[in-house]
Amino acid sequence: MPKPKRGFARADRVADQIQRDLAELLRKGLKDPRAGWVTITAVQVARDYSHAKVFYTVMDSATRDATQAALEHSAGYLRSELGRNLQMFTTPQLVFVYDESIERGMRMDQLLAQVAREDAARQGESDEGAPSPPADEAGEARE
């Protein structure tokens, strides 16, 4: 997910720090088994630093709802731990949003591969009826 051009360098630095700290907290500090393999893909912080949208993805899409519930349940704990690490007056409220961009990208890759296979199959069909390239004196085909 590309970062928008805003001109607020501090907000970007805060978002990056929150992303790093949350990733570490999820890896080491969160004991909820529902939040398995979570990857924090991006964080967007409001201008007044009161809210932070945390975009995440999971390895197994079947556990998506359970992971969302676990993250929402542990948002207070994660916020308090962030408050200890961040040197800010106010620690932002955390809102967890599932990042579908990776799934969309994988789906686009599948569609492009399917189109390439269909084109190759069509190309193979049209080559069967096409005349072969002319041969030179040695009997080898020229291209």
From TrEMBL:
GO annotation, cellular component aspect: cytosol
Region (Disordered) residue spans: 116-143
Annotated GO MF terms: ribosomal small subunit binding
Compositional bias per record (Basic and acidic residues), positions renumbered to this chain: 116-125
Transmembrane parts of this sequence: none
PROSITE patterns: RBFA
InterPro entries attached to this UniProt entry: KH_dom-like_a/b, RbfA, RbfA_dom_sf, Ribosome-bd_factorA_CS
Subcellular location: Cytoplasm
Entry keyword set: Cytoplasm, Ribosome biogenesis
Pfam families named in the record: RBFA
GO biological process: maturation of SSU-rRNA
The family this protein is said to belong to: Belongs to the RbfA family.
PANTHER family with a match to the protein in the record: RIBOSOME-BINDING FACTOR A, CHLOROPLASTIC-RELATED
Subunit structure comment from the entry: Monomer. Binds 30S ribosomal subunits, but not 50S ribosomal subunits or 70S ribosomes.
Function of the molecule: One of several proteins that assist in the late maturation steps of the functional core of the 30S ribosomal subunit. Associates with free 30S ribosomal subunits (but not with 30S subunits that are part of 70S ribosomes or polysomes). Required for efficient processing of 16S rRNA. May interact with the 5'-terminal helix region of 16S rRNA.
Protein's UniProt name: Ribosome-binding factor A
Annotated source species: Gulbenkiania indica
